[in-house]
Design brief:
The protein is built from 13 helices and 16 strands. The protein is α+β, with helices and mostly antiparallel strands.
Length: 381
């Protein structure tokens, strides 16, 4: 059994996969239903998966609906990404306690081994982007590195394209292209096609009941993925987009979108690649304990860009322009790839339905560089 080989398992045998991961010391995380949404949380049984449910997403809209079948993964994406487990929204970085014997320093907690069940291709790409920033850059994040150690990924190839999905435009889906240990394609309510993605995946899968994949199984999986790719809810033309955005800092569209933007930071909170954080220091009145916490922050908040004398970006126009231009343009200069994976969460969870694909298209359509320039006067002209 080698990486790249494909097999078929019964859907019920997914429970054996979960049990095998737990037996190897992994905390198994997967999709489940909670609070009217599909949420990633700890799971121990396939009965906790959102079987028979799907999601309907559009700009500013998200709702769950029952499917006509019992598909385990017949939905697109929930509001929260896997980032919450690798870069938590809130974590205690350092705690200091004073006693008669002196000062005691405690830093962080020992993270568990994490197994991610149901990761989509766009989400795997998002984690790879976060790795570039937090692991591979000049400022390695030790807490993130500890949580990324010994992860196990069971990916799921998408059989449903959400109304706000545009991963095909970004080259990040709907088929998982690497970064996984096992990848599932849900062929029917009875069977999964499984692709081995790593030696760790091969070792675990060797203990799962399976049969060899046939040509018909592979063709069926390819057809499912092709159908998903053909029905993306959104598209984004990426050719030359970096140059378009960087050449249009004074485009009137920034004013138009700013008139709608609430600076609520929803888009950055649901984005699987945004990595901005802030640090808060606390101490008690007795002076016996002090702590430093790290929380997610956003370039949409006034405090985020506050320097001596005031905020660098004190208008919604400046903050939206910073976010979108960084995400789709200057991120490429910094990290070698776009900061967007086409998951569409920022569109679905914007309360005023601002659509990043629509904004990019509007700026491209009236690119200042494409406007005809007035002819220079020459002699008798």
């Amino acid at each position: 059994m080698m990486p790249g080989e494909t097999f078929v398992i019964r859907t019920g045998d997914l429970q054996i996969v979960i049990a095998a991961l737990a037996a190897r010391g992994y905390l198994v995380l997967g999709p489940t239903l909670r609070d009217g949404a599909i949420i990633y949380d700890r799971i121990s049984n396939i009965s906790e998966l959102p079987r028979g449910w799907t999601d309907r997403q559009d700009a500013g809209t998200y709702r769950l609906e029952k499917r006509s079948d019992d598909a385990f993964f017949g939905y697109a994406l929930g509001p929260r990404s896997w980032k919450q487990f690798l870069l938590p929204p809130h974590e205690r970085v350092l705690e200091v306690r004073r006693s008669e014997s002196g000062l005691t320093f405690t830093s962080g907690t020992q993270p568990a081994k994490l197994a991610f069940l149901g990761a989509r291709s766009c989400e795997l790409h998002a984690i790879a982007i976060q790795d570039k920033v937090l692991l591979d850059g000049p400022y390695r994040d030790g807490a993130y590195a500890a949580r990324r150690h010994e992860n196990f990924f069971v990916a799921v190839n998408c059989a449903v394209a959400g109304g706000t999905c545009f991963c095909s435009s970004m080259g990040t889906g709907p088929k998982a292209q690497g970064g996984f240990d096992l990848a599932l394609t849900e062929l029917s309510a009875a069977e999964f096609l499984v692709e081995i993605g790593s030696d760790a995946g091969a070792e675990l899968f060797a203990h799962i009941p399976h049969r060899a994949a046939r040509d018909g199984d592979l063709a069926a999986a390819d057809a499912i993925i092709a159908e998903t790719a053909a029905h993306m809810g959104r598209t984004l033309k990426t050719d030359g987009l970096k140059e378009v955005l960087q050449a249009n800092p004074e485009h009137p569209r920034w004013d138009e979108v700013a008139s709608r933007c609430l600076s609520c930071a929803n888009c950055t909170m649901v984005c699987p690649t945004c990595f901005c954080t802030t640090v808060e220091d606390h101490s008690d009145l007795s002076g016996e304990t002090a702590s430093r916490d790290r929380r997610w922050d956003s370039c949409f908040t006034l405090d985020f860009s506050y320097l001596h004398g005031g905020s660098v970006r004190n208008t919604p126009r400046a903050r939206y322009r910073q976010w979108m231009t960084h995400k789709l343009a200057s991120w490429i200069d910094q990290f070698g790839s776009s900061g967007c994976v086409g998951c569409g969460r920022c569109i679905a969870w914007c309360p005023v339905a601002i659509d990043i694909t629509e904004e990019a298209a509007a700026i491209r359509a009236t690119d200042v560089r494409a406007r005809p320039q007035p002819k220079e006067a020459h002699g008798d002209d």
